[in-house]
Amino acid sequence: YERMRRQWISDIAHELRTPLSILRGEIEALKDGIRQVNPDTLDSLYSEARYLSKIVTDLHELSLADTGALSIQKVPIDPPAILNETLGRFKQRFTENQITIEDNLENSPPISVIGDADRLQQLFSNLLENTLRYAVAPGTLKIGQERTENRLVLFFEDSGPGVPAEALDRLFDRLYRVDRSRSRTLGGSGLGLSICKSIVNALGGEIRAVNGNSGGLRIEVELPLA
């Protein structure tokens, strides 16, 4: 536990150090007159500030989950309907990124689970953001559901690239990245999938990652039916 705690603190320090170093370098260059204030400079500063803000927000969410204080309402909800609503906000970005969504949820009958609509929307948004960052274009994202007597499974399977088999079990670890340099370039904090796991666990469900038949990553979210 002590080794993991030290590693966790070290990883957080590393994550915060990079954007802070970039911000300090940019501001010093402006003060010394090496760079001029223009839209490009301001965009760069704003981008790093947003990245820092996201890390801090995600860390706060995870700290709430660790202490059992993550706000979760437990009322009857329809996860496929919430997912369809979330998809509506992402479709334009998927089109721009040349990722085709194959959605098999539109004609599904209403399904009831006990959960939190806002947290499920956060969960689905994180999973869709993950696909936008890492799926190679042009590509596809298949979304569907499987239902058993007492469980609902929603799956998200992209067309690739997949993840090395040894990394699958670590995808939901905090700050874990398969390719650290590429993830930093794409703006990922390395905490989004950890937050997904915290939300699903709080709802009494399970989340897992496997390599799909299409050669890409398949994430399955399993929730207990009401």
Q: What structural class results from the helix and strand content?
A: alpha+beta
Q: Specify the number of helices.
A: 6
Described by strand count, sense and barrel closure, the largest sheet is: 5 strands, mixed
Cα(first) to Cα(last) distance is 36 Å
> How big a fraction of the residues is strand?
15-25%
Overall geometric form: globular
Strand order of the largest sheet: 2-4-5-7-6
What value does the average pLDDT take? 87
Give the total of beta strands.
7
Low confidence ranges: none
Radius of gyration: 19 Å
Order of H and E elements = HHEHEEHEEHHEE
Give the proportion of residues in helices.
40-55%
Describe the structure in brief:
The chain has 226 residues and is of the alpha+beta class. Helix content is 50%, strand content 19%.
Task: Please give a handful of descriptors for the protein shown.
226 residues; alpha+beta; five-stranded mixed β-sheet; two-stranded antiparallel ribbon; 6 helices; 50% helix; 19% strand
Give a written overview of the molecule.
The protein has 226 residues and is an alpha+beta fold. It is built from six helices and seven strands; from the N terminus they run H-H-E-H-E-E-H-E-E-H-H-E-E. It has helices at residues 2-31, 39-66, 79-96, 117-134, 180-186, 192-202; strands spanning 75-77, 99-103, 113-115, 139-147, 151-158, 206-211, 217-224. The strands form two sheets. Strands 2-4-5-7-6 form a five-stranded mixed β-sheet. A two-stranded antiparallel ribbon has the order 1-3. Strand 6 and strand 7 form a beta hairpin. The longest helix is centred in the first third of the chain and has 30 residues, at 2-31. The mean pLDDT is 87.
